[in-house]
Hints:
The chain has 316 residues and is of the alpha/beta class.
Amino acid sequence: MKNYTSVHDVADVAALVNxxxxxxxxxxxxxxxxxxxxxxxxxxxxxLRTRLSTQKxxxxxxxxxxxxxxxxxxxxxxxxxxVVMDGTTVEHIKEAAAVMGQYCDILGLRSFPKLQDKEExxxxxxxxxxxxxxxxxxxxxxxxxxxxxxxxxxxxxITEKAPAGKxxxxxxxxAPHVKALPQAVPNSFAEWMCKADVDFVxxxxxGYELEGSFTDGATIEYDQDKAxxxxxxxxxKNWSSFQDYGKVLSDGKGWMMTPEKLKVTNDAKVMxxxxxxxxxxxxxxxxxxxxxxxxxxxxxxxxxxxxxxxxMLESL
Length: 316
Ligand SMILES: CCC[C@H](NC(C)=O)C(=O)O
Ligand SMILES: NC(=O)OP(=O)(O)O
């Protein structure tokens, strides 16, 4: 595996999930593999889980790790090609990415969408320019349209917790929020679930349809209660409209997951990538109940990242 930016970079999804589960049993089994290798983690947006879990995963493999909040600590980046830099930008992505490629063996990048221009965001311009100019393998720490480390951890968790002897029903449900959030997490979750051995349903209000290439193979159900029937896993996440790009179309009244809503499920486990707005996206009652597996889900981020980094190191 050279770059890790989406499920399409994974030759065998089931094997990668199993490798993460094996690593979870013995996290230090490959602690020499990364000796003398450096992982750079570059953030253009905030992070708790991705930063800490990926750093821990690299350290478990014996790597050195350098972390930088480039948006706050670096120079103002110019992304456009061929412009005269006589404005507020100080360093071109061409030099910045190439220099980071000199210092690191693998480079992680977080670059959220601006949610203003659909074509610009969905072109993944920043991610693709890091791939082009860094000259070393790139690991997505969440890009404009996907979050593959989160999605792998989510599938690891579902595999670990699935009811014995049945194909689990997984429901991705939209949840209310007060801000416009990216489609990256649901896009990525949908892509991975459509490649997994699960019955996958997406439920959201009209107008929140995700881009079709991510949901091909999923059942789309606008009636949340119908979607939730007999679910084994309920994945709760807000996202802004793709059609009316970057917009919050409604207050989502009645869409927050509650214990009442869970009654129609098959005693479903509730998941969320975090951070979660308690009382807005997901009720306190659920988050504080045995139905919630959000903390174990976050714990699995380490083993997902470690399985990916192991395969990337083996390809260096
Ligand atoms: C892991 C989630 C990161 C981000 N969340 C927020 C709150 O911006 C999102 O929704 O994509
Ligand atoms: N779920 C996740 O990626 O969390 P952070 O944004 O805190 O890294």
